[in-house]
Design a protein that fits this description.
Distance between the termini: 26 Å
Low-confidence stretches: 439-444
Structural class: mainly alpha
Number of strands: 0
Strand content: under 5%
Order of helices and strands: HHHHHHHHHHHHHHHHHHHHHHH
Helix content: over 70%
Mean pLDDT: 79
Shape: globular
Radius of gyration: 26 Å
Length: 518
């Protein structure tokens, strides 16, 4: 039955796959292979490089304590990466729910969906890397069952924490955002202070290697490593294994119960028309259609998580990039990351323009006002906020980062960057329409298709290199080309807004009818 479930999901995936999507899937597979080889290769090098006499002769400072420190740091970095990239999305939950009507037992379907989540390529890559990293350091064979159980428990805990984090974000969003920004900016300031007086701080406050290692053993990565490298008896190993097995059972039982609850009582689309201040503000300044749509977007819990991500990534990386001595990479990566902020905001509103109040569009077609006017108002309203933030960021670049280029050059490059992604998101809103669902413990539904997200990340860095990479005297010709393309895009969109209506009728209307019938 489990093989049949995998076959059905794989068949449904292939049935929706276009030629361009197949290209993206190939790119994603290549990314996974590169990620897997880098993680596994790094783990092997970190653990085994002190076994090579040639390396030891060239690195006389490499004592056993320092090597242990390096492995502990790597273990914690690996755990952070594992936490960040663990996939908690079960495959095609609404479609799999239909199998209940064909007699698929709800208990088996719940367990099988959780098992399919565990078999996600990213989850397999990180769990397998943990096993290799720990087993090549193992002291005794009796620790092998303990290591296997601890790696599985680590996945279960991360899986559970990430789901509950989504619920906390939804209920305590302002507190989470403030706390995260406080910690990040505090960390950045601490790094800046330490870097000014590095030698004094290291001499006075940094503990010895042995003491530091003892502290790191109590971190998540350190605890995992201790199960393989520590010294404990068979009785202690049995106790750890038994306690770990009990926790694994309880956590996965919780996953099972929540998944079964989600299958039997699916989250209903929430009507969030509340005549609050935000509703009136958006309606007043963006118009009825755009204001209503933005209210849906800003009220959705998943988008709140996206806003937090958009705020945190530049806050962490841009100060670090400013410290780079390599002007080429600074001139390339900083403007790319700054230009990506309004692009990410634009994606939240534009990459799936019709998935929120999708059923209402059946009524919108019967409004006295023309449907083209409704869509035009929505389109123009959606780009207002990202465009305002875009120009604020661009002005800040000119004032505070003059080394990035001239005023005209920065404005043209950023405007071209914005216009290109606007076209990408118009295209994705029609070809990657996705009904906006809501998060629950056992599954989440990103508002933007993962294919679009993957393509967007790829294009941000690809287009960023084409637009922002320093090219010396050829820069003026690149500006002419970008300026001409900006003008052509603007004129085409302004004179052909009726293309939105035709594309809606061709690509969206029949899907809205399907959703309305469910």
């Amino acid at each position: 039955m489990f093989r049949k479930l995998i076959y059905l999901n794989w068949s449904a995936f292939l049935a929706r796959l276009t030629n361009f999507q197949a290209f993206l899937v190939i790119g994603y597979i290549i990314f996974l292979l590169i990620l897997f080889s880098n993680l596994l290769g790094s783990a092997l090098v970190i653990v085994l490089f002190d076994h090579n006499p040639a390396v030891i002769s060239q690195l006389p400072w490499l004592t056993s304590e320092i090597h242990q420190l390096i492995t502990l740091i790597f273990a914690n970095v690996l755990w952070i990466l594992h936490f960040s990239f663990t996939s908690t999305r079960l495959l095609n939950m609404p479609e799999n729910r239909k199998l209940l009507a064909f007699g698929y037992p709800v208990k088996k379907l719940s367990w099988h969906l959780n098992l399919m989540g565990f078999l996600h390529p990213l989850n397999l890559i990180y769990n397998f890397t943990w096993l290799v990293f720990l087993l090549i350091q193992i002291k005794h064979l009796m620790y092998v069952p303990v290591v296997l159980a601890v790696v599985l428990l680590n996945y279960a805990i991360i899986y559970s924490i990430k789901h509950r984090f989504l619920k906390v974000i939804e209920k305590r969003f302002k507190l989470i955002v403030f706390s995260a920004l406080f910690v990040i900016f505090g960390t950045i300031q601490a790094i800046a202070i330490i870097s000014r007086e590095f030698e004094y701080v290291v001499a006075q406050y940094l503990p010895g290697i042995t003491t530091l290692n003892s502290y790191l053993f109590y971190t998540p990565g350190g605890l995992l490593q201790y199960t393989a490298t520590g010294e404990y008896s068979l009785g202690v190993a049995s106790a750890i294994y038994g306690f770990t097995a009990l926790l694994i059972f309880l956590i996965f039982r919780d996953h099972f119960l929540k998944t079964r609850e989600g299958l039997l009582q699916p989250i209903q689309e929430r009507k969030i028309y509340k005549k609050n201040q935000l509703w009136h503000f958006l309606k007043k300044w963006l118009g009825l259609h755009a204001g209503k749509f933005y209210y849906y977007v800003l009220s959705h819990s998943y988008n709140r998580l996206q806003l937090l991500t958009i705020a945190l990534i530049p806050a962490v990386y841009i100060p670090l990039l400013l410290q780079l001595n390599n002007n080429y990479y600074s001139a390339l990566l900083i403007p790319t990351m700054l230009a990506a902020i309004p692009v990410a905001l634009l994606a939240m509103g534009m990459a799936n323009m019709y998935g929120y109040e999708n059923k209402e569009f059946l009524l919108h077609r019967q409004f006295p006002s023309s449907f083209e006017r409704q869509l035009k108002e929505r389109f123009l309203g959606i780009i207002v906020v990202p465009l305002l933030i875009f120009y604020l960021i661009t002005t800040a670049e000119i004032l505070y980062l003059p080394q990035l280029g001239s005023v005209v050059g920065i404005y043209i490059a950023n405007t071209f960057f914005f216009a290109c992604f606007m076209l990408v998101f118009i295209w994705s809103s029609f070809y990657y329409y996705k009904k906006a669902d809501y998060t629950s413990f056992s599954f989440k539904h990103p508002i933007i298709s993962q294919k679009v997200t993957f393509m967007m990340v790829f294009l941000i860095f690809g287009l960023g290199y084409a637009v922002f990479a320093p090219i010396g005297n050829l820069q003026i010709y690149r500006l002419y080309v970008m300026g001409g393309l900006i003008l052509a895009i603007s004129v085409y969109l302004w004179r052909n807004m009726n293309v939105l209506v035709r594309a809606f009728d061709k690509h969206i209307l029949h899907q809205v009818w399907d959703d309305a019938g469910q």
